[in-house]
Design a protein that fits this description.
The structure holds two protein chains of two kinds.
Chain A (H helix, E strand, L loop, with lengths): L1 E7 L4 E7 L4 E9 L3 E10 L5 E7 L2 H12 L15 E6 L10 E2 L2 H9 L8 H14 L5 E5 L9 H4 L5 H7 L8 H15 L7 E7 L3 E7 L2 E5 L22 H9 L3 H10 L2 H6 L5 H9 L3 H25 L4 E5 H6 L1 H9 L10 H5 L6 E2 L8 E4 L4 H19 L1
Helix pairs in contact in A: 1-3, 10-11, 11-13
Chain B lengths: L1 H10 L4 E4 L3 H20 L5 H9 L1 E4 L10 E4 L5 H14 L5 E4 L6 H5 L8 E6 L8 E6 L5 H14 L3 E6 L6 H17 L5 H12 L5 H8 L1 H15 L8 H8 L22
Parallel strand pairs in B: 1-2, 3-4, 4-5, 6-7
Antiparallel strand pairs in B: 5-6
Helix pairs in contact in B: 1-2, 7-9, 7-10, 9-10, 10-11
The chains are: A alpha/beta, B alpha/beta.
C-alpha cells in the first residue's frame, strides 16, 4: 500500500510518499510560495537527483496537481499511475477536544475541522485547503487526518485546566491542548523499545526541541502533561517565542508602549525567545557559536533556554513521582550536544550520569548518552512525524477495509 | 494616503503596482513606506523578513500601463474633482473592462467621477481611514450606476482579501465617517473658541468620557486642519445647512499654517514622527 503524507501550510505544502510494505520513502518534496507567480516546487524521487521547478501555483489544488504530475512523470516519476496511491494522510495542528486519535475524513469530520478554526486560526484553515485540494484531484481515495494535539488528550483535568473562571472553558474551550503530539508519541515508543522495557512501565520526559519546543510527561505510555498549552506559545523558551511569562506583562506592555493586540501577540511569537535575548537570531547553532566566541548576550540566551528546559524536566519528574528516561528529539534536541550536556550536567541529583563522549559523538539513529548504570537514562531519538502519519493512515484504511 | 493603501495591500500578501506622477514622488512614497514599516518593526508588529517581503511586493511605475494586469485599481490622488475626473478618463482608456476602478474619496461625488468613463458600472468608491494599516473599516460607496456585480466583488475584496469591515454607503457628501467626525471636530472648535474649556480638557472629555482613541482636536491635527476645512466647506456647500459652516478658528489656523502633525503645530505640538510633545 502506498500512502501520500501531506503537511499543508497557508502558502506551502510538504509531501512524502511511503511504500507501507517496508515503510520506505519513495519520494518527497515541497511546494513553496503558493499564491505567487513564482512558486518553487522541489521534488526528490528516492535516491535519484532532485528536481526543482519555478512556476505559477496560485492555490493548493494546483499545488497537489503538480505533485501528482511529478509522482507519475515519465522520467522523474516513481509511480506508473495515480491509482497506485492508496490513501492520503494529512497533518492537522489542532484537533480540539473532538479528536483524541487519527480519523478517516468524512463530511462530519470536515465540519468539525471548520468549527476548530477559532482555536487554530493560522493552521487549521491551511490543513483544510490541503484536504480539499487532494479531494479535488483524487476524489475516490480515502484520506486520514493526524492531529498534533490528539496524543495529549489523555491529560487529566488537573493538568489541562487553567485556574481561571470555568465559564471560559465551558464557553470557548480555553484549556491546555499541547502540540507535537505525533512526535512525543513516536519517540516514547522508540524509547521503550530501545530500553527493552514495556512502555506501560515507564516514566518518560520527552523533549521535542526544534524551532518550536515542548516537553511532555509520559506516564505508562500516556501523555499526562505537556508544556505547550492552548496555543504553541506556552511553556519552554523557543527560537522566537517567549514561552511562559507573567500574563500581566501583556496589558502592562500594551499600556506602556501603546501596543495593539496584534503587536503584542507578534512580539511574543516572533520577536522573543533566543532572538530577543541574544539579539542575534533564533537559531540555536548561531547562538551557540556566538557564545563560544565569547558573546555575553548569546551566553545569557543559551543559559535561560537551558535553565527553563531543565526546570520543566524537573517539574515533570515531580508530576510523575519519578523518572526513568529523558528523550531528546527534533532539530536542536538531536543536534545540540552543548545544550544536552548543559541540561544533563545539572541533573545529577536525579541520577543522570552523562557520558560526555557519547553525547558529543555525531551519529544517526537512536542512541544513549548516559553511562551504564545511570539511574535516569538519557536518549537521543530522531523524530519522524511523517512516518507516524503514514502509519496511522495505513492502519485506519486497513481497519476500514476489514469492517467493509 | 496612496502609499498607506499600497503598504496595507502588500502586507496582506497582494502584489501591488504603485503609480506616482514622478520619480521623485515614487522615491518619497517608498521612503515613507519603509519608515512606516520600520516603525512597525520597532513595535514588534512585523519581523525584518516580513518587512522585506512586503517591500518586495510593491512595484513602482510612472505610467498607467502596468495597471492592465491588475484586478482592481484604487485611485488616491488629491481630493480635487477635476484631477480625479481627468485620471478616471485615462484609467478608462487604459484598463480593460473587467478591472474595477475604485476611488478613495471622502466627500466627492462618485457619480460625477464615474460619468467621465465609458463604463460607470465598474466604478465604485473605497474610502479608507487613516492610518490604513491600523483601521479596519472601509466605506464602500455606490455611485448611481455602480453595478451589483462590482459592489459584490468589491465587498468580497474588502472583507475576505484585505480583511476589513466594509460598510455600504450611498452617495452623499462625507458619507458616514467624514460627515460625523468633521461635524464633531467643528463643534469642538466652537466649544474652544467660546472659551467653554481648554483644548486639553475638551480632548480629555471625549477620550476618557467616551472612549475615543484621540480627542476631536488631536484628531483634527492628525487629519490635517486643511483637510478638515476642505471637508467642512464641501459639506456646507452641498447641504447648505448652517451646522456645517466651518468654525472661524479653523480657518484662522489654516491661514496661519498651523495644519497639525504635518507642520508640527496644530492645537497641540508634535515632533517629526507625529508624536505629541
Amino acid at each position: 500500500m502506498n500512502v501520500l503524507v501531506i503537511n499543508a501550510g497557508s502558502s506551502s505544502l510538504k509531501f512524502q510518499l511511503y511504500n507501507m510494505e517496508d515503510e520506505s520513502v519513495l519520494a518527497k518534496g515541497r511546494v513553496e510560495r503558493i499564491g505567487m507567480e513564482s512558486a518553487i516546487i522541489t521534488y526528490e524521487p528516492g535516491d535519484r537527483p532532485e528536481v526543482r521547478e519555478v512556476e505559477e501555483v496560485l492555490e493548493h489544488t494546483t499545488a497537489v496537481r503538480k505533485v501528482l504530475e511529478l509522482l507519475v512523470h515519465r522520467t522523474h516519476g516513481v509511480l506508473s499511475s495515480i491509482q497506485e496511491i492508496d490513501a492520503v494522510g494529512h497533518r492537522v495542528v489542532h484537533g480540539g477536544e473532538t479528536f483524541s486519535s487519527s480519523v478517516i475524513v468524512d463530511e462530519e469530520v470536515k465540519r468539525e475541522i471548520k468549527r476548530l478554526f477559532d482555536l487554530a486560526p493560522l493552521h487549521n484553515p491551511a490543513a483544510m485547503l490541503g484536504l480539499n485540494a487532494v479531494e479535488a484531484n483524487l476524489p475516490d481515495i480515502p484520506q486520514a487526518l493526524v492531529f498534533d494535539t490528539s496524543f495529549h488528550q489523555s491529560m487529566p483535568p488537573v493538568s489541562y485546566l487553567y485556574p481561571i473562571p470555568m465559564v471560559l472553558y465551558k464557553k470557548h474551550k480555553v484549556r491546555r491542548y499541547g502540540f507535537h503530539g505525533t512526535s512525543h508519541a513516536y519517540v516514547s515508543e522508540r524509547a521503550a523499545a530501545y530500553l527493552g522495557r514495556p512502555l506501560e512501565e515507564l516514566k518518560l520526559v520527552t523533549c521535542h526541541i526544534g524551532n518550536g519546543a515542548s516537553c511532555a510527561a509520559i506516564l505508562e505510555g500516556k501523555s499526562v502533561d505537556t508544556s505547550m498549552g492552548m496555543t504553541p506559545l506556552e511553556g519552554l523558551m523557543m527560537g522566537t517565542r517567549s514561552g511562559d511569562i507573567d500574563p500581566a506583562i501583556v496589558p502592562f506592555t500594551m499600556g506602556k508602549e501603546e501596543l495593539t493586540l496584534n503587536e503584542v501577540s507578534s512580539m511574543l511569537n516572533k520577536h522573543s525567545g533566543l532572538m530577543a535575548i541574544s539579539g542575534l537570531g533564533s537559531d540555536m547553532r548561531e547562538v551557540t557559536q556566538a557564545m563560544e566566541a565569547g558573546d555575553r548576550n548569546a551566553k545569557l540566551a543559551f543559559d535561560m533556554y537551558e535553565y527553563r528546559l531543565r526546570k520543566y524536566i524537573g517539574s515533570y519528574a515531580a508530576a510523575m513521582n519519578g523518572l526513568d528516561a529523558i528523550v531528546f528529539t527534533a532539530g536542536v534536541g538531536e543536534n545540540s550536544a552543548v545544550l544536552r550536556a548543559a541540561v544533563c550536567r545539572n541533573l545529577t541529583y536525579f541520577g543522570v550520569d552523562l557520558d560526555e563522549e557519547a553525547n558529543a559523538r555525531r551519529e544517526p539513529g537512536d542512541r544513549e548518552i548516559t553511562k551504564p548504570g545511570s539511574r535516569v537514562r538519557v536518549l537521543i531519538i530522531p523524530t519522524n512525524e511523517e512516518l507516524v502519519i503514514a502509519r496511522d493512515t495505513h492502519r485506519l484504511i486497513l481497519e476500514q477495509n476489514r469492517v467493509k | 494616503m496612496g502609499q498607506g493603501i499600497a503598504q496595507m495591500l502588500a502586507a496582506q500578501g497582494l502584489e501591488v503596482v504603485l503609480v506616482e506622477r514622478s520619480q521623485e514622488k515614487i522615491d518619497q512614497a517608498l521612503k515613507q513606506i519603509e519608515m512606516s514599516l520600520d516603525k512597525q518593526l520597532e513595535k514588534w508588529a512585523i519581523t525584518a523578513v516580513e518587512k522585506k517581503l512586503i517591500l518586495g511586493r510593491i512595484q513602482c511605475s510612472r505610467e498607467l500601463q502596468p495597471l492592465v494586469d491588475c484586478q482592481m485599481v484604487i485611485e488616491s490622488v488629491s481630493e480635487d474633482v477635476d484631477i480625479k475626473k481627468q485620471l478616471f478618463r485615462e484609467l478608462d482608456a487604459v484598463c480593460p473592462k473587467p478591472i474595477i476602478l475604485a476611488s478613495n474619496t471622502s466627500t466627492l461625488s462618485l457619480t460625477e467621477i464615474a460619468a467621465e468613463t465609458g463604463c460607470p458600472e465598474r466604478v465604485i468608491g473605497l474610502h479608507f481611514i487613516y492610518p490604513v494599516s491600523k483601521i479596519d473599516l472601509v466605506e464602500i460607496i455606490r455611485g448611481l450606476r455602480t453595478s451589483e456585480q462590482t459592489f459584490a466583488e468589491t465587498k468580497r475584496f474588502v472583507e475576505n482579501t484585505i480583511q476589513k469591515r466594509g460598510i455600504q454607503v450611498y452617495e452623499s457628501p462625507g458619507f458616514v465617517t467624514t460627515r460625523l467626525i468633521c461635524t464633531l471636530i467643528n463643534e469642538a472648535l466652537h466649544v474652544l473658541s467660546e472659551g467653554v474649556a481648554t483644548a486639553e480638557d475638551i480632548d480629555a472629555a471625549m477620550r476618557i468620557g467616551y472612549d475615543f482613541h484621540y480627542g476631536p482636536l488631536e484628531m483634527a491635527d492628525r487629519f490635517g486642519l486643511d483637510s478638515v476645512l476642505a471637508a467642512m466647506e464641501r459639506m456646507f456647500r452641498e447641504f447648505g445647512d448652517l451646522k456645517y459652516r466651518p468654525a472661524v478658528r479653523l480657518k484662522q489656523m489654516v491661514r496661519a499654517g498651523h495644519l497639525g502633525t504635518k507642520t508640527g503645530q496644530g492645537f497641540f505640538r508634535y515632533d517629526e514622527d507625529g508624536d505629541r510633545l
